[in-house]
Design brief:
This protein is mainly beta and 657 residues long. The chain has 8 helices and 45 strands. Bound molecules: sulfanyl-(tricuprio-$l^{4}-sulfanyl)copper and dinuclear copper ion.
Length: 657
């Protein structure tokens, strides 16, 4: 008994000791004296950088200012947003359409800003959806999701949406290989090796940003994880990390961790383009949605595409090559010169850095070690520039500062490590709190990084902030990287689960035609009401269209009668304001969807099917003026079949004695 008690004390003490020793000891004094002044942005002053952060399982993208870490906005992309009505208004519902029907949620991991000549240009930001494979384009004039394209033939679009140096292509690929959509997918799961394939998608980006799935490369059924395009000399190539080269279909934590090396797949997409031009592509049936937002009609439409052009990587011998990479690589990052390819093996004790020049040489001299599923495997040493020795444990992602240095997050040892790209020497290491995933230097994956700040996105927060029950926010940590040593400046919580992020000098977005409001004269919405005189209520069978306007501080009409139980009522609400920052909201009692948040000059539609008779108040939800609380109205709902006539008015339906 006594013995047992002692034993348990011993276990507790040992446990504590372990816990304490795991926790970096300088957790609070890691911040140096002048940190506060470096992140202080005085009231009314702007931040220096925009920071776009993926929302992970929130499906959205959030926007922060740097260096303050202030949250500026959350932009709805792949998930419904009751706050703005995204996914609830009739105009926006088609944005979330897929070949599986309406999908109101996704898991959003990576972002990439559009580039011109290898530099971020502030036009668009692209976002991936991991679960139901999609790529979105967000317009940075309006901070609105402008387009979403679904990717057929794949599962888990993770290594996406990385883009080439002039935004020629944005890519995607299967993390979860599956049988192609048009193949018979009703096969035993343990026929993985025979029936499951990986598909790499090359989505062409047009002048106005329009997305078009140009072609897909059929690749072996492995897990494609991350990717990055070549730059400068290596422009024309794309590099994808892949794991599960064991092709396991169960218990991957064991069965996909057997091989000593997996691969980075190098794809010569310029060559692939040539094959497409030469007619080597094969059209196969596929079904995928392409959703576009039309600024003129302020309405989205969804189109289902039926075909895709494919190239087979094992038949066309010179578009894909495998570079062996230890061990279950995750991040695949290319330095600003385009010469160095960094693979981060989650289970590797070193970081391999490959040379593009050597890779090209090795391919020319056929220095191969056989092939993998018909794709030539380049000899490891032949492509290797060198290895970073003892960088830390669990390397995940690498960014660059443009001054010859790389920064790699170490998930297991909870630190970020700075090293020199040429001589591969570790220069500095700093603890992070805790278990970092991605990190971000503004422009850090382009040819021109702005190497002043670095943000590390941590997976585990534990004791960093006031506790909020079992669920804790994840956290970002801002570092100053302008000197030789990294300096921790700030911790701040984030929305959803942040994975990758992007940063850009604020003026590149501010000076790129930011929209302050929609011009009412240019509003070509099918149900726009451009002045109060045009307001009306029109019954078409059991459909009722309400052409409504709002302006400080009333709706027109605000008294509506003659609606019947079971009617499909469409409130088409136009905000007549022509001034920055004067949205109005619209909500009605009992509506089983959301509110509308209508920007100045915009029209949005809420569908409402009343299920009971009675009086239903509606009101403005956004505090817009001193008389905001007066901004309200009533709808009278009569029983089905009632003959109460349609009437509507504002200001004239005066009290009866
Ligand atoms: Cu490392 Cu999905 Cu980019 Cu998260 S992934 S961390
Ligand atoms: Cu309009 Cu409050």
């Amino acid at each position: 008994m006594k013995n047992k008690f002692l034993k348990s004390i011993f276990v507790v003490t040992l446990g504590c000791a372990l816990f304490v020793s795991c926790k970096p000891k300088d957790s609070t004094d890691a911040v140096e004296g002048d940190a506060a002044s470096k992140v202080y942005v005085a009231p009314g002053k702007y931040d220096e950088f925009y920071n776009f952060v993926s929302g992970g399982f929130s499906g959205q993208v959030s926007v922060y200012g740097l260096p303050s870490g202030r949250l500026l906005r959350v932009m709805p992309v792949f998930s419904e947003d009751p706050q703005s009505g995204y996914g609830y208004s009739e105009e926006t519902k088609p944005m979330l359409n897929t070949s599986h029907g309406y999908v109101p949620w996704d898991d959003q991991h990576h972002l990439d800003l559009s580039q011109t000549n290898g530099e971020v240009d502030g036009r668009w930001i692209f976002a991936n959806a991991n679960n139901t494979p999609r790529i979105a384009r967000i317009d940075l004039k309006t901070f609105k999701t402008a387009e979403i394209i679904e990717l057929p033939n794949c599962g888990g679009n993770h290594s996406s949406p990385f883009i080439t140096q002039n935004t020629e292509y944005v890519v995607g690929a299967s993390r979860f290989s599956v049988p192609a959509d048009n193949d018979d997918g009703d096969v035993p799961i343990n026929t993985y090796k025979k029936n499951f394939k990986g598909y790499l998608s090359f989505v062409k980006v047009g002048k106005e940003g329009e997305l078009d799935l140009a072609f897909q490369i059929v690749a072996p059924g492995v897990n494609f994880d991350l990717s990055h395009p070549g730059k400068k000399e290596s422009h024309g190539w794309f590099f994808f990390s892949c794991y599960n080269t064991e092709q396991a279909n169960t218990l991957l934590e064991v069965n996909a961790s057997k091989n000593d090396k997996d691969f980075i797949m190098a794809v010569n997409w310029k060559k692939a383009e040539e094959y497409i031009k030469a007619g080597k592509g094969k059209r196969i049936p596929a079904k995928y949605a392409h959703n576009t937002w039309d600024e003129k009609t302020q309405t989205a439409k969804s189109e289902i595409k039926k075909e895709v052009l494919t190239l087979d990587a094992s038949e066309l011998k010179d578009i894909c090559y495998m570079i062996p990479c230890p061990k279950s690589p995750h991040g695949c990052d290319i330095d600003p010169t385009g010469e160095y390819i960094v693979g981060s093996g989650k289970l590797a004790a070193l970081i391999p850095v490959f040379s593009f020049t050597k890779l090209k040489d090795a391919i020319a001299k056929k220095q191969f070690d056989g092939n993998y599923a018909g794709i030539p495997v380049v000899k490891y040493e032949a492509a290797l520039h060198g290895e970073v020795q003892k960088p830390g444990l669990g390397p995940l992602h690498t960014e660059f500062d443009g001054k010859g240095n790389a920064y790699t997050t170490m998930f297991v040892s909870s630190e970020v490590v700075k090293w020199n790209i040429k001589d591969l020497k570790v220069l500095d290491r700093k603890a992070t709190y805790y278990s970092p995933g991605h990190l971000m230097v503004p422009g850090g994956n382009t040819e021109k990084p702005f190497g002043k700040y670095m943000v590390v996105y941590n997976k585990i927060t534990k004791d960093r902030f006031l506790p909020t029950g079992p669920e804790l926010a994840q956290s970002a940590q801002l570092f100053d990287i302008s000197g030789d040593k990294m300096k921790l400046l700030l911790d701040y919580p984030t929305i959803g689960e942040p994975h990758y992020a992007q940063g850009i000098p604020a003026e590149k977005i501010i000076n790129n035609g930011q929209l302050k409001y929609y011009k009412i004269a240019e509003n070509n919405h099918a149900y726009a009401t451009k002045g109060e005189k045009e307001t009306k209520v029109v019954r078409e069978g059991n459909k009722v269209h309400i052409y409504m306007t709002c302006i400080r501080s009333h709706f027109a009409p605000d008294n509506i009668e003659g609606i019947r139980v079971g009617d499909e009522v469409y409130f088409h609400v136009t905000n007549l304001e022509q001034d920055w920052d004067v949205p109005h909201g619209f909500a009605i009692k009992g509506a089983n969807n959301a509110e509308l948040l209508i920007m100045p000059g915009e029209t949005l539609t809420l569908k409402w099917v009343p299920e009971k008779k009675g009086i239903f108040p509606f009101y403005c939800t956004d505090f817009c003026s001193a008389l905001h609380q007066e901004m309200q109205g009533y709808v009278r709902v009569s029983p089905a079949g009632s003959n109460v006539p349609i009437t509507y008015s504002v200001g004239t339906n005066l009290p009866k004695e």
